[in-house]
Input
Amino acid sequence: MPVAPRDHTSRREVEQAKQRQRTAQARAEEVLPEDEILRVDTDLILVDVAVTDAKGRPVRGLRAEDFKLYEDGVERPVAFFSVERRGGERRPVAVVFAVDVSGSVSPEEMVRIAQAVRAFSERLDERESVFALMSFGMSARVLQGFTNSREKLNNSLRKLVREAGAGASTHAYDAVDDAVRLLARRAPRTRDRRPVKRVVVVITDGFPVGDTVSPETVIERANAEDVTVYSVTLPSFSRSLAALSGTPLPTPFDVSGLVEKTGGSNVYATERDLEPLFKSLAEEVVSTYVLAFYPPPESRGDGRYREIRVTTRPGLSVRQSRPGYKS
Output
């Protein structure tokens, strides 16, 4: 019986390999629809958008056609739109907790903060998420780099409790700046072709003192790195002001615009039990849409700052992760 040439067998194996690759690609496209595939492109401008109703509740289920996106007042086509679907892949998250350990934060309050941070992280168990922990007073210190290990996070939280009252002042803006830099160095913008939600949660008594970095610089850096900042104002601040005015007054973070201009929100911890508040905040962090557009070719790389504005259905409120970008 004649023996088939060796090169014939080789070609057949190559064709079989190509067929397996085509089959795998087809299955991947069935699992991950085209509108959820992020094409990594340096010209693509991303913006996270959180939408709430009149009662401040996150709004889900919106589609790309429910949004309009403007660059310097000119409407741009939405080139990419992503939203989590029930039963589909969930967006990866990278979170840095920056916790105030200045003298105004009591050891008892720090124990409650540690419990609440655990509750926050557990709320995101169903998705690919990593967490880092920093403490700050006069300077910031990384207690735990990014990890998805529950044991490592718990060990670092025990260190945090021991640091209560260690700081003489509150360099909150410096700490947020360090947290943004940590995200820029260690948390990728995309993972498995999906945009990573990069977040700083700063937990403080609301009185930054002695910072070397200005709020404007922190905002600019956070916008450039696609980082959203959320702040939790501790009960020691909230209760004292509520007693005077009936409701909590804006914190210095609110006044600076740091939270608003990065697409986050500030919450006031008015109860001793912080866990429900942190669980709600964790839900808000992941209840966002991602929109992107391509700037016109003639404006790319010219170094100018351009404003971004996103609108949606009447009666709904929009918070976007950055007000603009530098081309």
The helical segments are 6-31, 107-123, 150-162, 172-186, 215-224, 235-245, 252-256, 275-286. The chain has two domains: 43-85+289-326, 93-287. The longest strand covers residues 45-52. Residues 93-287 form a domain with the Rossmann fold fold (CATH 3.40.50.410).
